[in-house]
Amino acid sequence: MDEVQAVAAQAGATPGQVALAWLLAQGEDIVPIPGTRSAARVAENVTAAALTLTDGDLDEIARILPRGGFGARLPEGRVPVWE
After folding, report:
1. What is the C-alpha separation between 47 and 56, in angstroms, rounded?
2. Please, which residues have CB within 8 angstroms of residue 58's CB and are 6 or more apart in sequence?
3. N or C: which end of the chain has fewer CB within 10 A?
């Protein structure tokens, strides 16, 4: 998380704004649907659309992000076996 906060600080944004801006930078077929509990967070989320991440920011985020899948949708023993 510290690394994401560093990218956010460099971009003059919050980590949440960086996450939304990163999603928006992935292509026009990606539509983030952020959840929020307050009007302040709605305003914060809206400003993420105007945040432009540099190629360096995007490269740094790609380095930070984990690779592969994590967690299971179904508990063990409930995962279907396809034969």
Report:
1. 20
2. 22, 25
3. C
Amino acid at 51: L
**Residue 32 in contact with residue 23, Cβ under 8 Å?**
yes
Tokens of 62: 């790609």
CA atoms within 13 A on the CB side of 50: 6
Query: Residue 7: CB partners within 8 Å, gap ≥ 6?
Result: 18, 57, 60, 61, 64
Task: For the chain, 83 residues long, give each residue's pLDDT as a single digit of tens.
Answer: 689 899 999 999 999 999 999 999 999 999 899 888 999 999 999 999 999 999 999 999 999 988 766 666 777 777 777 77
